[in-house]
Fold this sequence. Notes:
Layout: E1 4-9, H1 14-25, E2 32-38, H2 44-53, E3 62-63, H3 69-80, E4 85-88, E5 94-95, H4 99-110, E6 115-123, H5 135-139, E7 164-167, H6 168-174, H7 184-195, E8 199-210, H8 227-242, H9 246-265, H10 274-288, H11 298-309, H12 312-318, H13 323-327, H14 343-348, E9 354-361, H15 370-382, E10 387-392, E11 406-408, H16 412-420, E12 421-426, E13 441-444, H17 462-465, H18 471-478, E14 483-486, H19 489-498, E15 504-507, H20 515-518, H21 521-531, E16 538-542, H22 560-567, E17 571-575, E18 592-594, H23 601-607, E19 610-613, H24 618-622, E20 629-632, H25 636-643, E21 656-658, H26 661-669, H27 676-689, H28 697-706
Parallel strand pairs: 1-2, 1-4, 2-3, 6-8, 9-10, 9-12, 10-11, 12-13, 13-14, 14-15, 16-17, 16-19, 17-18, 19-20, 20-21
Antiparallel strand pairs: 4-7, 5-8, 6-7
Helix pairs in contact: 1-2, 7-8, 8-9, 8-10, 9-10, 11-12, 15-28, 21-23, 22-26
Amino acid sequence: MPRFSIIVPSHGVAGRLSQALDSVLAQSFADFELIPVCDGPDSAAADVATGLAGRDSRVRPVHSPSSAGLAGARNAGIAAAQGAYLLFLDGDDTLAPGALAAVEARLADTGGVDVLYTEHERVPWWEGDPVNPAAALLAEAPEGAFTPDRAPRLTGVTLPAWSAVHRRAFLDERGLVFPDGHFTDIGFGARVAAEAERVAVLRSVVVRHQERRQGSRLEQPGEHHAELLDQAELALAHAAEKGLPEERRRPLFEQLFAEILRTAAHPKLLTGGRRAFFHRASRLYRRHRPAGFRPPAGRAGSQYRMLASGSYTAFRALRAGGAEEETGARVSLPRPRGARTPMGYRRHLRRPLDPHLAVYCAYWGRGYACNPAAIHAKARELAPHLRSVFLVEADQAHTMPEGVDFAVIGSARYWEVLARATYLINNANFAEEVVKRPGSVHLQTQHGTPLKTMGVDQSTYPVVAANSGSFGKLLGRVDRWDYNLSSNSHSTQMWERAFPGSYEHLEYGYPRNDVYYTATAEDVARVRRELGVPEGKTAVLYAPTHRDYETGFGAGALDLEAFCEAAGEDVVVLLRAHYFYDRGGARGSGRIIDVTSHRSSEDVCLAADALITDYSSIMFDYANLDRPIVVYADDWEIYRETRGVYFDLMEAPPGRVARTPEELARVFADGSYTDAGATALRAAFRERFCEFDDGHAAERVVRRVLLGEPPEAIPSVIPLADRVPAPAATLVRS
């Protein structure tokens, strides 16, 4: 039997779950079992937990449906636990280094207890110093082990479940589990404190609680706040049933009603039923008020007296805002951020939204491309009632396809459609001045799968952070998103970390990748002719990424002419530089065809028989074609340290890896870039990263976002084994 069982619910925190689990596995005290509780075997969290379980036998994942909530997840962990003591850890928190060793030492000192209360840190999600809210309370407790009546303020109400260590046999004997619903820590903690006979405290931090940018569910408005009264009633009724003395019931009552009154007086938490909440709280107050209880002085005391008398009218008048809050404050018009926002935009913001207007933009106005273009094309088919306008820079207006309505960025029409559009779709971000209007729908499509760090995760890499602009402004743009698109579970988890917000993830695949499953051999041949690929030649796409620590582009250190000579006479190279370096000119000559300025990266990929890249996200998209990929990683260590990455590409590449120009040419000359080993690597890579791309992503997005169909009506993703990618021109797929 292990000494400790650490139970980690993971719903909604898959992006940071690995950090929580790693903090447990890194503990110096090793006699424990780690129980991640996942939504199901196919969830993103289960992928993380299963991967760790394969490497460490102490990891024992269990499942609990998301509908069971936090209480259900913790109870599933309790049922599976075998340890002598239980610890609870949220999926985005971490155990402090040495925490288990400190807990074990304290348990040894006290001779074992039912509950060991511990300190914890609340860590601001971005800036600010951590705080230790339990320290003052635990400082009042006696030394050594003691009975709860010696520290009556340890009621279990003000300490979360992860700020205590529980003896498993004690919970089993008393039948203590987490009650259903929100505020479950209150109902559980109060009952545990009432039942415990021997407790102790540990005056050191065990858990570091990472606060979320969007706040916890308990801090957000909604009808769920009525459940606070359910948990309070459960706690107070249990205390009365146990016959706890007044000295112990009084602190419990005080702490519960301090929270109840805070909720009742808050201007935003209760979105409905404020009067009913107050009157139910009043009945609860009168029924359970301990003899001799004296309300505090001042304004708080007045609230207690109004609660005791059931005078909601007086309570409402005392509450800040009064009747205005009760009837709902007038909704103000959105205000643009920028000081130089055109007056036309401000004027159009006063007009109603156009319910049939959709605005699209790709790569900051570089033209008709990427996911926005694919969604736009599908919307013309499935939602013809919508009027669509693409935003484009003036110097790219000539590239817009015939029949596509567009507005030049900065023009009067540009500001008008941005102000009035109901649907706004972008693969980057709209201008800083654009506001999120009530009723509008913003879809962030992204434009790649993240290998390199993104968003706020860049802040710890100085070279990148220096060029990233204001992270505060970035998060202001994130706050406009209603939906964020993912092509695989990895992306979902990383977007959750990099762009913390309250948007909904759409795991639908990338619409731009649909063509990899819908294109025919004739389409491939046509694109090759347009690009000038000689018939019968093996076209190798070379697509390196941008490096933050370099300026300019010179195809890296790779001599492409020398590569062609060494790789074989049938090889030609399609050179596609990162779009940062697209200046509209051609760099190619002879067997080098410069396709950097070609509008569609999807066309270029269809034309290529194989891909060479370094760390570009194009590898994730190209993998859908199930064609050979070679990673040219001549500076991986530098790139990893300066840019930051989410996983080790060298450990899980999509094919052969070359570290020098000679190695790169050799894998093509000897054919090893297509051999069984390369094919196996590609298959594993596709299994992980081609999860949702199946040729129907655009349809799913249009039906969900533009047509408003419910999630259950959206077509499911076709399994990878059942998909047939577009054929290559000269290579036979394994």
